[in-house]
## 1
Amino acid sequence: MSQVKNKIIINLILAFSIFAILAAYFIQYVLGHQPCNLCLIERVPYIFSITIILICLFNQKFEKITLVVLSLTFFIGASLSFYHFGIEQGFFKESLVCDLNESNNALTKEDLLKQLKEVPISCKDVTFKIFSLSLATINIIISLIISAITIKLFLNYEKNK
């Protein structure tokens, strides 16, 4: 029975990861809020977790390893979000990650004018909030919760067999 519970939780993490990616694209493309570079990087753990869980669903021999990988993935996601939150709050300075704009290879005056018209999105500017919390803040909470859940599943894995 507990093995079924593990499968349900892993499937819920998969569903939530898919929802998170779809919500990010909805906010970007439908609502028109352009993400900064750190926001784009914070999507990677969700995409990675979707891939890992789908592989695990087809090959169940590596379920225990999958739990460890998921735990580390979401812990890294929480760390990235914490860094982003720190930049938003002014605790950290923006790094080169925040300024990954295309290199300045404009050779013509038209290209230079085009680049000047494009407004870069700063990592410290919060353009979208839910319940007065930035998406980076929400991502910290969610990533830590999922990481804790996967750690608990891993630690209780042998008991649940």
## 2
Amino acid sequence: MTSLEDAWRWYEKTRSQLRRMKRLAQHYWTELPWEGRLERDDHFQLLQAGQVEEEAAFGLLHLDDLAIVVLFSVFESLVRHRILAEVIEESKVIRHRTLKLAAEEARERVEEGSFFHVLQPFKDHHADLVEEVNQVRRYRNRVAHGRRGQESERVDPQLAYGRLQRFLAAMAQSPAGSTPP
């Protein structure tokens, strides 16, 4: 996925399909026309309604957390890519070797460093928004690392999506790393 919108669309479609499968198993499984092709399909012939319902419910149980991981991963990639492009563009006009080295180090930090530090420069004009994004980041980290460590504030996919979209919009409003007035 290359955009936040793609990640959100994946989440919505997957959630919708899992809900449909759960409902199909709960209400209609025994009424399906099993005679003919459906009963000969190896993927369906041994399935029971309870198993399908249980598996769909299990998928739904973990989908929101997985969506946070996906949304934030796409977001992080977009932010790093944009800032990296800006740093590279700005560094083209630098002549002094010390400043060239500093620009190279900045590029490396943006590319590979802690995302927390990548967001820091935006705190001067968007402190609240950066903190909201950091809450999503902390929740994503906790989920991605097996829910170990201190429990972070719960974030649902819709809340995360809105926060991440707002940050990307704020970035788009300020040209090439400049700070808004």
